[in-house]
Design a protein that fits this description.
This protein has 78 residues and is mainly alpha-helical. The chain has three helices and no strands. It has one domain. Helix content is 35%, strand content 0%. The longest helix is centred in the C-terminal third of the chain and has 13 residues.
C-alpha cells in the first residue's frame, strides 16, 4: 500500500508504533489514477473497504496468525 501526502496522518494514528520499512526499487514508481465508473455502471461493482479498514483487517489477521505463511508468493503483488 502506498500512502502519500495528507493520507499519512490518519494511518499513523491507527498504528502509532508501527515500523516502516523503506525498500529501494529500480522499476518505474509512477502512480496512476483510475476511473472505476465503468466497472460500477457495467457490473455494479463498487469498493467495500477503505485503506484504514484494510490496514486494521490485515493487522488482525497477522496478529491472530490466521495465515500459515503470510510471506508466501500467493499473497504478493508481483
Amino acid at each position: 500500500i502506498k500512502i502519500t501526502g495528507n493520507d499519512r496522518i490518519p494511518h499513523l494514528k491507527i498504528y502509532p508504533n508501527g515500523k516502516i520499512k523503506y525498500v529501494h526499487k529500480d522499476e518505474n514508481p509512477r502512480d496512476y489514477r483510475v476511473d472505476f465508473s465503468k466497472i460500477k455502471n457495467e457490473l455494479g461493482f463498487s469498493i467495500t473497504k477503505k485503506v484504514p479498514n484494510g490496514m486494521k483487517e490485515i493487522a488482525t489477521i497477522l496478529k491472530d496468525n490466521l495465515l500459515i505463511n503470510p510471506f508466501d508468493k500467493k499473497y504478493q503483488n508481483t
